[in-house]
Amino acid sequence: MTDGQPTQGNSTSSVLGRRLGAELMRLRTAAGLTQTHAAKALSASTGKVAKMEGGWVPIRDPDIRALCTLYDADPATIGGLLELARIDRERRKAKGWWNDVALTRTMREYVPLENAATAVKAWQMSLVPGLLQTPDYMRSLRRGWVPEDQPDQVEAFVTSRAARQQRLSGDEPLSLWAVISEAALRVPVGEPKMLRKQLASLLDWSECPNVTIQVLPFGATMTRALAGSFNVLSFAEPGAMDVVFLELAFSATWVEGGEGAAQHVRLFEETARGALPEVESRAFIGTLIKGL
Predict the structure, then answer these.
(1) Segments of the chain scoring below 70 in pLDDT
(2) 2 occurs within a structural domain
(3) CB distance 22 to 53 below 8 Å
(4) Which of 38, 111, 213, 253 makes an SS bond possible with 206, Cβ 3.0 to 4.6 Å?
(5) Distance in angstroms (rounded) separating the CA atoms of residues 250 and 235
(6) Which pTM does this prediction carry?
């Protein structure tokens, strides 16, 4: 339940915007130029350049071309930045159910990205992944996280989280590969009856062709993934970077492409290799249900 999305006045720093801004700043620095030089090339203020490099505002194609000319960037680099800017502008304007519900700033950035993604790799060590939670499980979590919430606020949370599950069905469903720690399946978030229903729901989801569920049992080989849960979001656009989302109790971290994202993909795949195969995972979950 974090509230960690960067903001500045009425502006919002997006994942792709930060990536684009960082690339422009890298090119400027490599060219030995300052934000003042960039501002002159755009006939703008240094404040605008700072906002662009920080990902606070969408960047127009003419501004990208002007800066890349100043920085002597090659055509391939320019093309990549233009495509990144196009996708960022489209996602900033994207409309969906999330525009009409109360979300934290972090989730207001995460949910549209998840909605636009084609695949999610989710490693969860303490809770059932959000996309696979039952309404009763969601209610129990919310009441524990935010005990001061009124009933209508709890239901609003449940409605918004349940809406995310719509991406797992339909004509072009999201591909979800979830690796879940045994500990997450044993956390007593509510009455045994509720947990039985949650585990049974996981078995139902595991039968869907676009959903893969594996369990990492207590006896598995030690993995670096035990340091924390994370989601890796992948997109269909050619050359699109993976985005990694790590959520903590009071903050969130984004890893946007590059070697950082690649490391998390490798860590996820390493963890999946140490987990039970799908069939054995289903049998394991079935055994847990019988023990409740």
Answers:
(1) 1-13, 237-240
(2) no
(3) yes
(4) 213
(5) 27
(6) 0.79
